[in-house]
Amino acid sequence: MSNEAVTQMQKQFDSTIAGPARTYASLVLDHFEQLASLQFDAVKAYAETGVQQARAALDVKDASDVRAYVENQQKIAKDLGERFKGDAEKVVSLNQDFAQKAQKVTEDTAKSASKAAGQSK
Predict the structure, then answer these.
(1) CA distance 34 to 38
(2) Residue 59: which domain range?
(3) Is 121 within the bounds of a domain?
(4) Is residue 119 part of a domain?
(5) Long-range contacts for 8-16 (Cβ within 8 Å, ≥24 apart)?
(6) In this structure, is residue 95 part of a structural domain?
(7) pLDDT tens across 2-32, in order?
(8) Count of beta carbons in the 10 Å neighbourhood of residue 72
(9) How many domains does the chain fold into?
(10) Please, which pLDDT band fits residue 121 given cuts at 50, 70 and 90?
(11) What digits encode the pLDDT tens for the residues 26-52?
(12) What is the 3-state secondary structure (H, E, C) of 33-61?
């Protein structure tokens, strides 16, 4: 086999298999990084809220403090519900974006493979 043939095979391999695999792997890593960051932010916010509420509970000394604490719990529950909903929407958006990008990589790879197959005939 000549060097030219080997070079051509290597180019075809890179354009049809190795290149798309690297692109997809990079896409997966970016997606994982974004999801992990979102999860770390959410856990931090939820933990901070929990600690704040535990501290507020320790400050309860009489009936008026109990009433204020309970009223605040309703607001905290509402805020956490909204935060959870927002976090879920972000995850859905990240997943949709990932799916679109992965589909584009797949389509581009199929076109490239089809073109390479046509050239080798």
Answers:
(1) 6
(2) 3-113
(3) no
(4) no
(5) 12/116, 12/120, 15/112, 15/116, 16/109, 16/112, 16/113, 16/116
(6) yes
(7) 888 778 778 877 777 888 889 999 999 999 9
(8) 13
(9) 1
(10) low
(11) 999 999 999 999 999 999 999 999 999
(12) HHHHHHHHHHHHHHHHHHHHHHHHHHCCC
